[in-house]
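chain below, 507 aa
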Amino acid sequence: MLPGGAAEADGAVRRLLRAGAAARYKVMKNWGVIGGVAAAVAAGMYVLWGPITERKRRRKGLVPGLLNLGNTCFMNSLLQGLSSCPSFIKWLEEFTAQYKTDQNQPTEHRYLSVTLLRLLRALSCQEVTEDDVLDASCLLEVLRMYRWQISSFEEQDAHELFHVLTSSLEDERDRQPRVTHLFDVHSLEPEITQKQISCRTRGSLPPVSNHWKSQHPFHGRLTSNMVCKHCEHQSPVRYDTFDSLSLSIPAAVWGRPMTLDHCLHHFISSESVKDVVCDNCTKIQAEGTLNGQTIENQRTTFVKQLKLGKLPQCLCIHLQRLSWSNQGTPLKRHEHVQFNEFLIMDIYKYRIPVHKSSQNELNQKNSEETTPGTKDGIAVKPSDAEQPSGTKPFFMNGACSSSFLMSSGTFPLAAFPECSSPVYLYRLMAVVVHHGDMHSGHFVTYRRSPPSPKNPLSVSSQWLWISDDTVRKASLQEVLSSSAYLLFYERVHSRVQHQSLELRAEE
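prediction:
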């Protein structure tokens, strides 16, 4: 026995089969017309409203996610981190302005800077889009034009891709024609002074476009300083460029949490270099010998130390989590490195040595203004030799309680009087985290929500957790508790520094 509805349908089919060919043709023709009309209505709905099942409206306060093209979480996480750095987006806007004059050919498939800018503007809600998920395959396509073959189906490293992007942007800048502008007097006559320029031109010169010479905001410089332990002679300072600080994680001490300061101090810690020829020791030895005697080069031990000669506007810190076992197999280090929403980098900045007498006068002048734990008005951390045993430094990046840093609008300087006027103060903008081991895993990103359109210069206190196309809100405590792999900081300028930068821009 069939149910009533099924029996009626079965009967209709039987009557259709018993009818003649003409009757069956007429019925099928009517069904075809009905089906065509339904298909036309469905197509119209698709054109007007898009695919109902796939298209979703982005929730308020969130940012678009990125489609995973196979194993592209490394690219998606990095793009979300870069899109939270306003200075980098601003630099791309200024750099790509040179391409706006060429309207004959589309530029998005030829230049990495244009493609990257469009993606970052969309992810920072500066482009009008209601899509919940974006496709970043265009970035891989343009990188292939730069001879980078990056597969979307193989697991890659987010930090390596960061270097690929920065080096490719530098290559793009270097490929631009280096034609000197007629108003660029400094390039035509490097020795001329600003006063002479004003005398010759009877006034200030119009601004000169300098896109191909400008460095991206992640560009910084390291200083390498070597001092002879025997005669204390200092060799010339060597400068090297960097776009990220790759910090190794030192061995953990029982009962002592690992902080970002420990990694930074380990990075700049001095090391002894043996059997180095010292020209000054050789010269001293030669002065004390008789004429005509041959003096061999004096080899001594030098102390080498790294410092940060130029700190960038956007600071990318890479925590090296790769280690090797005794058997030579790669291992991942999972320990948590404490970091804060704000980062003070003054103590890691290289300063040009001054004469001892000048230094003594400067110390006497600032003795009344400085407080314990500072040097020349700038907070410093005592070295292991200077710091008494059993005491803690006044401030350590990553060691203070996060309750002091809940307000993201301003740095809580009142909580740290010895750090009341840091020059190199950075605010956390994004964190890239890797889950898994050395053989497989997944990248996710914590980033700040973009500022509101009404106040685009503000900094949002709302954090987001993003895993490819999944986006949700997160708390600052959750961010600071994560096992960071990449940290993106942006420098915070004081009012005095802002005024100085504006004066430089006007000049």
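The two ends are 94 Å apart (CA to CA). The first strand starts at residue 65 and ends at 66.
thats it, cya
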